[in-house]
UniProtKB/TrEMBL annotation:
Residues where substrate binds: T11, S12, N13, E14, N15, K16, S70, F144, G145, F146, D147, K167, H172, R173
Provenance organism: Sulfurisphaera javensis
Function: Pyrophosphatase that catalyzes the hydrolysis of nucleoside triphosphates to their monophosphate derivatives, with a high preference for the non-canonical purine nucleotides XTP (xanthosine triphosphate), dITP (deoxyinosine triphosphate) and ITP. Seems to function as a house-cleaning enzyme that removes non-canonical purine nucleotides from the nucleotide pool, thus preventing their incorporation into DNA/RNA and avoiding chromosomal lesions.
A single Gene Ontology CC term: cytoplasm
Quaternary structure (record): Homodimer.
Active-site residues from the entry: D69 (proton acceptor)
Residues given in the record as Mg(2+) binding sites: E40, D69
Signal peptide: none
Required co-factors: Mg(2+)
The name this protein goes by in its record: dITP/XTP pyrophosphatase
Length: 189
């Protein structure tokens, strides 16, 4: 178990920070929120986007940090919106995705997260993925983003119907964070 470890998380999304901070408690890691907008390149890979964003953020704050990027990948839509998830959420939202999915039987989808850790010696990316399906309606008022239309595998509820502790049991973000912690425990020892 780690003692008195603090890591900066750069994000303008308080919900993402809250999820990561809750996950970090399990490992006795304290996360410090740095509320900066993420500078994103346009790319087809979450890993490439988050790596570039983390490098830019590191050059601004000159301190070890983690940065996160997530995407919803819908099988029947050729994995759209993928790395464009945030833009799609802001423009057409949950209703827009459900409208596009009308009449489509294949509801398979997955959420993926890429977390990048950077310091003065290393830049490393960790990923997590959760399979599931798109619901037929918006369900639940918890969570954020596309949570109210994503049902994780093995569940009948959407992420939007789960509290934070329940969501973190399945979460793509949680899986990526656990991979980061495994690395970090050996890296700092």
């Amino acid at each position: 178990m780690l003692k008195n470890v603090e890591i900066s998380v750069v994000t303008s999304n308080e919900n993402k920070f809250r999820e990561l901070a809750e996950l970090a408690k399990e490992y006795n890691i304290k996360l410090r929120w740095i509320n900066l907008p993420k500078v994103e390149i346009q790319a087809d890979s979450l890993e490439e986007i988050v790596r570039n964003s983390a490098i830019i953020a590191y050059n601004m704050i000159k301190s070890p940090l983690i940065m996160e990027d997530s995407g919803l990948f819908i099988e029947a839509l050729n994995n759209f919106p993928g790395p464009y998830t945030n833009y799609v959420r802001r423009t057409i939202g949950l209703e827009g995705i459900l409208k596009i999915m009308q009449g489509i039987e294949n509801r398979n989808a997955y959420f993926m997260t890429a977390i990048c850790y950077i310091d003065d010696k290393i830049v490393k990316v960790f990923t997590g993925k959760i399979n599931g399906r798109i619901s037929y309606s918006i369900r639940g008022d918890k969570g954020f983003g596309f949570d109210p239309i994503f049902i994780p595998e093995g569940e009948d509820r959407t992420f939007g119907e789960m509290n934070l502790e329940e969501k973190n049991k399945y979460s793509h973000r949680g899986k990526a964070f656990k991979e980061f912690v495994k690395f970090y425990l050996t890296y700092i020892s």
